[in-house]
Amino acid sequence: MLGCGEAADALAARAMLRVGEGKFDAAWQDLLACHRLGRLFRRGGTFTEPIVEIAIDRIASNAELAYLERADLTAVQVRDRLKDLQGLPPTPPWADKVDLCQRFDFLATVEQIRRGGVDPSDYLSGFASFKIPDADMEKSMAAIDWAPALRNGNVWYDRMVIALRLKDRAERQKELDKIERDLKTLEAAARPLWNAIPILLGKDSPATKAGKLIGDRLIPVRMRLASDLQQLCDRDEQVQRNVQVAFALASYRRDQGKYPVRLGDLAPKYLAPVPEDLFAGGPLAYRPADNGYLLYSVGANGKDDGGRTFDDRPRGDDLP
Questions:
Q1: Is omega for the bond preceding 133 within 30 degrees of 0, making it cis?
Q2: Which position has the higher pLDDT, 309 or 120?
Q3: Beta strands in the chain (DSSP E)
């Protein structure tokens, strides 16, 4: 993964250079290559890979909007570019990765702890430091009943996957919020016991309770990462929707000499169906003007911030 962000930046920069030279077709191929590079990462199942893919997608999307503004294209050419975007390989659902890769990663982490021991102080952040165990630690690890940690982990992953597979984002977020409340309850119950972990791992203790406790410390961190990554995936999907609408608007203007009054006017010739705001569950915010328009999603907070993004002052959560 090292260097792939730089490769994406280089592709986007070369695309802009080629636009300046009037090589619009070659520039477009660079931007499509940038997207495809990002799609390769979503095939993996770690937490890192979708973050890299989303970052590369954003680089490509920003460059595409600049390309759309500067490239001298006909309405037909713009529509062809839009078809290219719609034909990019789909990104696999994050739920699939959580169901298989992340579930087994959790089980593997428990197994690593069983073999190598754990430094309890590291669990304050939910992570463990693995080390070569001494004889006392090996004895303690062997005495632990690990079944509760493994069993509870699978129960939580089953629940998370069911929530992540919900198609309606509002319903999905509702279930994820319920999971978050229950995770807080799990943490609150485990925290007072955590100070006793050295006793539970002591050489004279059977340590039968330690397995469940270790699992209870791992589960909230892993579940929250899975939930947070889904939100990042939702934001990336919305950005791609917005870019496609921007291309349809450009094609419409080249044909009609002006932007449409409503986004619905893009259908069916320019875009069918017209994408909705994933976060609002309705139409995107759209305000046409004589020489441009304002188009945005309300973002994850579900509140219309008037088009203000995270980089604006005052800060907003809208997605252009």
A1: no
A2: 309
A3: 285-288, 293-296
d(CA 123, CA 179): 21
The number of beta carbons lying within 10 Å of the beta carbon of residue 86 is: 11
Reported pTM: 0.86
What is the C-alpha radius of gyration for the chain, rounded to an integer number of angstroms?
25
Nearest in space to 7 (alpha carbons), one of 52, 70, 66: 52
Q: How confident is the model at residue 47 (pLDDT cuts 50, 70, 90)?
A: confident
First to last CA, the chain: 28
DSSP state of 297: B
What is the length of the chain? 320
**For residue 93, which phi and psi values (nearest 5 degrees)?**
-60, 140
- pLDDT tens, 93-112? 999 999 999 999 898 888 87
CA distance 182 to 217: 13
Which of 7-16, 167-176, 215-224 bottoms out in mean pLDDT, i.e. has the lowest? 215-224
- Which pLDDT band, with edges at 50, 70 and 90, does 214 fall under? confident
Which among 153, 152, 141 has a CA at the least distance from the CA of 104?
A: 153
Cβ atoms of 283 and 271 within 8 Å: the answer is no
At 172, is the secondary structure helix, strand, or coil?
helix
In whole numbers, what is the pLDDT of the chain averaged over residues? 87
Residue 303's φ and ψ, nearest 5 degrees, are -115, 135
Largest CA distance in the chain: 83
315: phi then psi, degrees, rounded to nearest 5: -70, 145
Q: How far is C-alpha 158 from the geometric centre of its chain's CA atoms?
A: 19
CA distances from 43 to 17, 32, 39, 72, 186 (A): 31, 18, 7, 35, 32
- Whether 236 contacts 64, CB under 8 Å: no
| C-alpha count within 13 angstroms, C-beta hemisphere, residue 28 | 19
List 319's β-bridge partners, or say none. Answer: 297
pLDDT digits over 167-176, tens only?
999 999 999 9
Cβ contact 205:70 at 8 Å: no
